[in-house]
Amino acid sequence: MIKKVGLLYNTLRYLKKKQIYYRLHYFIRSKSRIEKNPYNKPWENAELLPVKLKPTIDKPVSCTGTNSFTFLNLDKTFTGGIDWNFAGHGKLWTYNLNYFDFLNQANLSKDDGLALIHNYIDSEANLLDGKEPYTTSLRLVNWLKFVYQHDIQDQEIHDFILCDLKNLDRNLEYHIMANHLLENAFALTIGAYCLNRVKTLEKGLGLLADELIEQICVDGAHFEKSPMYQQILLDRLLDMMNFLGDYDLTYFCGNDASRMLSWLKIVTFSDGSIPYVNDATPNIAPSTSQLEKYARSMGIKAKDKRLGDSLYRKFKTDSYELIADCGGVGPDYQPGHSHSDAGSFVMHINDSPFIVDTGISTYVANDRRLYERSACAHNTTHPDGIEPNEVWGSFRLARRETVNVINDTFKALEIKRSLSYKEKYKLGREFAFSDQAVNIIDHAESSTKNGRYSSYIHFSPQVVITETERGISTPEAVISFKGFVSFELLNCQIATGFNQLENAKKVKVDFTDTLTTEIKLTV
Predict the structure, then answer these.
(1) 25 FRET partner, CA 20 to 30 A, in 18, 85, 292, 520?
(2) pLDDT, mean of residues 111-132
């Protein structure tokens, strides 16, 4: 009980006052008699403005017919009507069902889409997760895309979209903030524009301006530092610019879109994949090449920039690409998608994954989720038996380490990490790069009883590994360790998508004060 209170306190103390206020405000309002239901009939007659959309990015195929769905690599066929509250595959699956991304997959017919929408409207009185503001935000935009693409003149659908807009306007996620509030701002702005709600549009544009300033780093990264969410949010920003084509948004949003695309292109590997760091996994977001094409259709191009305040760094030669994380968790008030991965790195050799991140396979609050956010699931170091950051629940984080960049050049990178809770320690990691090798030096200082540290390296499932006397050998590279107490090759599982794991290998190296790791390419 005392431990749980401590975790809660050390989580809440990083929150903004506004988050706490709105969490209490929405809770009290939900228990009061003054709570209003925007979906109560009779509905107000909604009128949509004419909007000419440029082609958007097709969504993945997730719906076949009007009763079979696949989300997060889990299938469900409904018989006797769709249960929009179906919880058998977890809450995130239910959310995806209510997002209605499938309306904009390439092969869904107009008639099937209309049938799904009307089924949903008929189920309004029983909807649960579908009325949450994040879900409402995504559905509102997806319905509007579908309506304009097929020129649907259906008053019931138009009216329901207006109900969604009113519901969203009353429940903006100030208690969560971060990407949730930015999605709210996109949807509020798009919906208000299409429905010609001037005051709501002004509110949406104001919120959007504030959140873009708050959430987009100078180098173009979204401040939650997940390449997957970077792709998702850039797609939505481009959608908003597409809908509001009559507005001069070139300076207001075009600069942010250009910077976001620039960051994304830099961190994207030559094979088109992104590093699956923090909360990121394949086959969820549009690809970088799709986003670049979409941006180009609206006159948006990437700018030539270096990685900066996002605190990711990329090093590239003719033979390898390496991306290193030299920052801590963030943002402080919403680290739900952050992992204990300071100092971690991922590496491709000859355009193929070699050293990889464990990735994510679930958002469920279980042991696997805790593991995937922990230090031992990343290519970094930590004191034996001590987590650098107190990750808990599914999206919670209490006490955390501090991370500082000491040296940052084209050929070298050095960071310092420290933590004062439980047992004091300080860690340093230095990278040195050459055309055919990467050298990593880990320094440790500790007041822990045994003073032992562990370093991990995770390999792509396709890499064939042989143990040697001082390290490991693969067809791509030889990795040798100096200064170790012991090392062992262990089995592990790498996430290849939600609810998908593939067997792989990782090496754990124990040391006391200094460990030198050399990755020398053999090709």
Answers:
(1) 85
(2) 97
